[in-house]
Design a protein that fits this description.
This protein has helices at 2-6, 73-85, 131-146, 154-181, 189-194, 202-211, 230-239, 250-276, 280-290; strands at 11-13, 22-29, 42-46, 49-55, 59-66, 97-101, 105-107, 111-112, 115-116, 123-124. The chain starts with a helix and ends in a 6-residue tail after the last helix. Helix 3 (131-146) runs antiparallel to helix 4. Strand 3 (42-46) and strand 4 form a beta hairpin. It is built from nine helices and ten strands. The protein is 43% helix and 15% strand. The strands form three sheets. Strands 3-4-5-2-6 form a five-stranded antiparallel beta sheet, covered by helices on one side. Strands 1-7-10 form a three-stranded antiparallel beta sheet, with no helix packed on it. Strands 8-9 form a two-stranded antiparallel ribbon. It is an alpha+beta fold and 296 residues long.
Length: 296
């Protein structure tokens, strides 16, 4: 209302890059009080978007975010109810579904005069990597640390805030788009369009060209407080089959051998811990009843 309506700060629409602009959300009950609770959010690709599935103590939060240019609301609801049908003990037709619409993008500026946009007032993107929460925290921290004692410094502080958060929003857009660009799906127009050159920002295209010859590293992410680090990009790139043709030096061979050993050690440690740890429902029930344990 203030930035857009009163001050006239433009909103930068990103639908040409990130197509999803709609969502159907539902609260799905567990069949009973002993049903397992997933310890992670599960994201499942669909013909025109993806379904999120979040295990909470009393229910599951499930929804489908999709592109209205690639699916009707009716087709999206059918896809979501088909997902419900795979959940034991749930009647897929009895679940109430709520429709949401959003405009993916962000403000051109986030701090103007005496008004600062934080959270949804700054912008919104599909929650594929839960970036909204970290942006709220980073905004609050920077405002608290930089808020000037005198109005004479306000313009410089606002300029620095705008530069920082414009960089962050642009990098988040690229990171989310990376998930789609690397997809090999050809079963729907949505996935084909997501790999079209016209939907890929120059910044991401340049990064992919560089990463074809060297691994993502600190030089690619110069900020000390990057929202998504080089490691985050490596998880997506190599988890989705991207190949880097790096020079195979002796140091590289040693690092590869060391990495392989770490994978083996980690796998053994995971199996050991899994035999000892309680399942997620047991853990959450214990915490709810007794609180978190205090060491010492």
């Amino acid at each position: 209302v203030l930035l857009g309506g009163h001050y006239g700060i433009p909103y930068l629409d990103k639908r040409h890059i990130l197509f999803n602009d709609s969502a159907l959300a539902a609260q799905v009950p567990y069949p009973d009080d002993t049903s397992p609770i997933a310890s992670q959010t599960i994201s499942t690709a669909q013909a025109a978007g993806w379904v999120w599935d979040i295990g909470l103590r009393s229910r599951r939060g499930i929804g489908y975010t999709y592109s209205s240019d690639h699916s009707s609301d009716e087709a999206a609801e059918q896809a979501l109810r088909k997902y419900f049908a795979n959940i034991p003990g749930v009647d897929p037709h009895a679940i109430a579904v709520r429709k949401l619409h959003f405009r993916p993008g962000h403000r051109e500026k986030f701090w103007h005069r005496n008004c600062v946009a934080v959270g949804l007032s700054a912008g919104f993107l599909e929650p594929l990597e839960a970036s909204a929460l970290v942006l709220v925290e980073l905004s609050a921290a920077q405002i608290a640390e930089d808020l000037p004692a005198h109005t004479g410094e306000l313009k410089l502080v606002a300029q620095r805030f705008n530069e920082k958060f414009r960089y962050r929003w642009d990098r988040i857009v690229d990171f989310l788009k990376l998930h789609y660009v690397l997809s090999q799906r050809i079963d729907s127009t949505y996935w084909k369009d997501n790999r079209g050159d016209e939907s890929i920002a120059d910044s991401l295209r340049e990064q992919l060209a560089l990463w074809s010859n060297h691994y993502p590293g600190p030089r690619d992410f110069p900020q000390v407080d990057e929202v998504f680090s080089a490691a985050s990009h490596q998880y997506i790139l190599y988890g989705m089959g991207f190949e880097t043709r790096a020079r195979r030096s002796s140091r590289y061979v040693q690092q590869a051998e060391r990495a392989q050993q770490l994978f083996i050690d980690n796998s053994k440690k995971v199996k050991q811990l899994m035999r000892q740890l309680p399942d997620n429902r047991t853990l959450l029930t214990a915490i709810s009843k007794n609180g978190l344990p205090v060491n010492g």
